[in-house]
Specification:
mainly alpha
Length: 140
């Protein structure tokens, strides 16, 4: 069931929201991704000093920050990806067929024979064996 709200009620909520005080920096809760974004420069400095991802993750865990090394790597890579406007590796992109993308093949005697054999094999009963006689070839 959809909920409907009166315009006057929405205006009241907006007024109350604008009257809310701004939260202090220490009151704002951040998720892991946001936290890593803030710590990214410091993590990069540790990496330059020779620390590995596992050592950094271990340090973070000792300080009540639950994260895995693969998640840490992913979070550190994402802002870089956004700057470069590169697609995410796991995201599938499909090309729409255009005349430029289509592969054009010349119909040769060889391809004509292959097509004929393919047509003959797809016809008829699949459970019954068929023997096709290929025409004599002058070209090997």
């Amino acid at each position: 069931m959809r909920a409907y709200h009166k315009r006057s009620k929405i205006d009241d909520i907006r007024k109350k929201m604008s009257d809310l005080p701004e939260l202090k920096a220490d009151e704002i809760q951040l998720n892991n991704k946001e936290s890593i974004a803030i710590l990214a420069h410091d993590i990069a400095t540790l990496r330059e000093r020779g620390y590995g991802f596992e050592q950094i993750v271990e340090f973070l865990r000792e300080n009540d920050f639950e994260i895995t090394s693969s998640t840490l790597k992913t979070y550190l890579r994402e802002p870089e990806r956004k700057r470069e406007n590169t697609p995410i590796k796991n995201k599938k992109t499909t090309k729409k067929p255009t005349n430029e993308n289509k592969k054009t093949t010349q119909v040769t005697e060889k391809t004509a024979i292959k097509r004929q054999i393919k047509k003959q094999t797809t016809k008829g009963d699949k459970n019954q064996a068929e023997f096709l006689i290929a025409p004599d070839r002058d070209i090997l």
